[in-house]
Amino acid sequence: MDREFLADLFASFGPVTIRRMFSGFGISADGINFALALRSGLYLRADEETIGAFEAAGSKPFQYQTRARTMTVGSYWEVPAHLFDDVEEFATWAKAAFAAAQRAALKKRSRARRPAAKKDGVSAKSRPAKKAASGRAGSGKARTTKKAAEPPKKRSAKRSPTTKAAKRAHKSAS
Description:
The chain is 28% helix and 24% strand. The longest helix is centred in the middle third of the chain and has 26 residues, at 87-112. It is of the alpha+beta class. The protein has four helices and eight strands; from the N terminus they run H-E-E-E-E-H-E-E-H-E-E-H. Strand 1 and strand 2 (24-29) form a beta hairpin. A six-stranded antiparallel sheet has the order 1-2-3-4-6-5. Residues 132-136 have low confidence and may be disordered.
C-alpha cells in the first residue's frame, strides 16, 4: 500500500497524518495513532468494544514473527477485505478504531495521573522523605568525615596513569 492509496481510503474518515513506520505507515488523527499499514496488510485499532465486529467479519489480530515465536498484538486487527470496496463503511470502521485509540489514550493518561498510594491514611507525597545516611542503601550508619567541610583539592594538569600498562609505559618514557 502506498501513501496515495491510504490518503484516498481515509478521505471519507477525515484528515489523517500518514507517517513512515516500521515497514509501512502509521495513520493518525489529532495526534493519536489508530491504524497501521504494513507489508502484511492494513490494521485498525481495536478494544473490548470493537473486537467483536472484527471477529464477526473474519478478521485476525496483527501478528509478527520473532526468532523464537509468533507475537500477537491484540490492539490492532486486520481490516476486513470487503471494506476496501466500500469507502463509506470503511470510514465507519475507521471512526470506531479512532474512538478505541482515544479510549486507550485516556486510560493511559489516567493511569499516569493516579494519586500516590496511601499508607496508614497518609499519602506518600505528604510523608517526609527518608534520607540515606551514606548514599548507599542498607549501610545502617551515618558517615561523617572531616573532609566534608574542607574544600576539594585541585588536581594537577598532569594526571597520573591508572592502569598497570599505562604505568609501565609512563615509567619507560621517563
